[in-house]
Structures are given as structure tokens and as C-alpha cells.
């Protein structure tokens, strides 16, 4: 398929977290799957490229979801009256156990993948389950979708039901290696593995030590959860009395940033020591505002994270989050920050449209490399939005129209989608 072309329309993208470029009637140029930049007129050197004219529609970089659970997609919007640990035992673990059946996994992952493809998300970091075959099936379906994803076979060797607990730390490690070798042979173009210890309470020290060896051998990134819930934090103190912080329970096994690219979801209750570790080790925080509300976890201090230069992206966190629609996550992030400013700390200003758009694009995209912007050299992921359904009596500029789309839109506004310069619909 052609990866050299020009899109014409109203172009919006982030340069910095507080600077949102919104230009009317511009051209964004894609050559070999990468952006050459945004132009008022087409430079002579690109004059022979085909132009796809989207008229008055809005073109943005594809959105990046740094944290979602594919097997939980089936129970979104159900059983949301519980806190994290009880919710896991009551809803999550029984559902994830079903993925021992490839027939069930095929049915569930087809729905998840189809809906994710139709969303504004172009890249995602995804949890699967402990089941090797079902995880590979998910990777196959995501590869077929054209999206760029990192997918993790989950590790769990303690503190989970018999029906969803790997037999031993060695079995968990061995299954992980088998999964990595099998998927390496598939030679995926857009799908890659990410090491996925569910969270410290479900992984023994012996397993974490084995995962450290696997991470080093295969040079893998890591995704997990951190400081989501007060009860969870207290539990980690009991399980890992040697750890100075929750983060230390990962760092002790070299699974927390530095040479190991790491995403930690939530970080609602990270203390000063933990925040410093996150910043100094270059760990990415996946902010999941809806999930934090639905499970009564709390309000994450994203303003502080941004002010301290921490990498922050957004996560839908389905099924604790109800939707894969990251526009909804953007609005939730703003609303949560307003409550934090009003009720908790008036020195920490609420997040702005510019900042949450940055988090959903360039901020989270940095985990994938030069992703999430139309600046020159960035991989060309783009979503075309048609807001004609959203009638308005006033004349709005492009930035105002984008703001309305963030608050109002769903997949009905998504007209076209490009990933790495390939049009996927």
C-alpha cells in the first residue's frame, strides 16, 4: 500500500504539552510512513505526491492508549460498585479464567479488536491473561487490525484463585519464554510483546527474579500497576517488607525504568520517594481517570507529575474504564483535576485541553518512539474527524471545534484512520 501521500484539512497536533497547533486548510505530508511536517502550501519537492482532500474535516495524530485489559472488555459497565481488590476477585478473575478456552477467546477478542480499530486509538499497550495460546490469538487479531500494539501475557503465581494462578514461579517463567519464542517466529510488523507481571501482590519474589532474567535476555519493555488503591499499598508493605516503596518492589528486580522501558498504571497514591523514582528512572505513568473513579481509587496527581517532568500518557483501562474512547478519558482527566484543585490542593492547577490532548498523543506516544505528532520525523499516525453531525449556531475556529470533539465525539465522528502511513479504513 502507498505510504507517500498528502492529507489536506484542518490540522491539529501538539508541539509541547501546553502548545496545541490548530491550523485551517493545511497540508500534512507523509513519506515512507513518516511525517514531513505541516505546510500552508505544498513544497515543490512533494508536488507529485497524491493529495487526499478532507475538506473541512479535522486531522489529528492517532491517540495512544497506554493501559487497557483486552479480556475485560466483555464486562465493561458491569459490577462497578466495588473497590479494586474485591472487584478483581468478584468480576475480573472469573472472566479472565474463561480465556483458557480458545473458542471463547476468539469471540471476545474479535469484538475487542474490531471496536478498537474503529476508535481514534492507533497504538495501545494491552494486557491479555495468563493463557499463552489466547495471548497469541489476541496478538494475531491485533496484527490483522493494522494497529500498533504491545501485548503482554500476564504473570500470576500467588494471591489469585486456583483457576487463575500459574502452578509455580518456574511454570510462569517457562510459559512466558515459550510465548516469546512462538511470537518471535510470527514476524509481526505492528505487534510486539511486553512483559506483564500483573502487579506485585500476584507475583512472588522468585517470579519477579525470573522476569528480570527474561527482560534482560529478550530486551523487553514492562507494564504493570502501581499505587492504585490504599488497601493494595498496605498489602504490598506486608508482602514486601524489605521494599522502601511500592515502586521498590519492581525496582529491586530491575523492572522499573532506566534500561527497562516501563509503564506503570495509576500511581494515585505515590509518595514523594516513589514520585522521585518514577521521574529519575524515566518511568511512564498511564493516567486512568475513569478507572480511578469507578473503583473509588482516588484522584491521581497528574499536575504534579507534569510539573516534575514525568512522562504521562492516558489509559482507558477497560473494563475498570467503561470505554476505549480516549476522548472520554481526556475529559475525565480534566474533570478529575478540577476536583483535585478544588478539594485537595489549590496550588495544583487543573489540567487544560492542551495538556490532555498532549497526554493522549505525543506524551503517551513517546513510549513508542517518535509518535503522536505531525512534526517532521514522527511516524505517520492520523485520524480524520468529521464534526458535521455536531451542529452549532456560531462560527467556530479549528481549536474550538477540536475541543467540542473531545467532549462530544464517539466513533461516528471518525472518518478515516492511518497507522504508519497505511490507511486502515
Structure description:
By secondary structure, the protein is α/β, with parallel strands linked by helices. It has two domains: 5-61 and 373-423, Urease, subunit C, domain 1 (Roll), CATH 2.30.40.10; 63-368, Metal-dependent hydrolases (TIM Barrel). Helix content is 36%, strand content 23%. It is built from 13 helices and 17 strands. The protein has helices at 84-97, 102-118, 132-145, 169-184, 205-218, 230-239, 248-251, 272-280, 289-294, 302-307, 326-343, 353-365, 398-408, and strands at 5-16, 19-31, 34-39, 51-61, 63-69, 121-127, 148-152, 154-155, 191-193, 196-197, 222-226, 262-266, 284-287, 311-314, 382-385, 414-419, 422-423. The chain has a seven-stranded mixed β-sheet with strand order 3-2-1-4-15-16-17. Helix 4 (169-184) runs parallel beside helix 5 (205-218). The longest helix is centred in the C-terminal third of the chain and has 18 residues, at 326-343. It is globular. The model has no long low-confidence stretch (mean pLDDT 97).
Which spans have pLDDT < 50 for at least 5 consecutive residues? none
- Strand elements, count: 17
Q: What value does the average pLDDT take? A: 97
Which percent range fits the helix content? 25-40%
* Number of discrete helical segments: 13
The CATH topology of the largest domain: TIM Barrel
Q: What order do the SSEs take from the amino end to the carboxyl end, as H and E?
A: EEEEEHHEHEEHEEHEHHEHEHHEHHEHEE
Counting helices, strands and paired strands, the structural category is alpha/beta
Give the CATH H-level superfamily of the largest domain: Metal-dependent hydrolases
* Number of domains as seen in the coordinates: 2
- Strand arrangement, major sheet: 3-2-1-4-15-16-17
Strand content: 15-25%
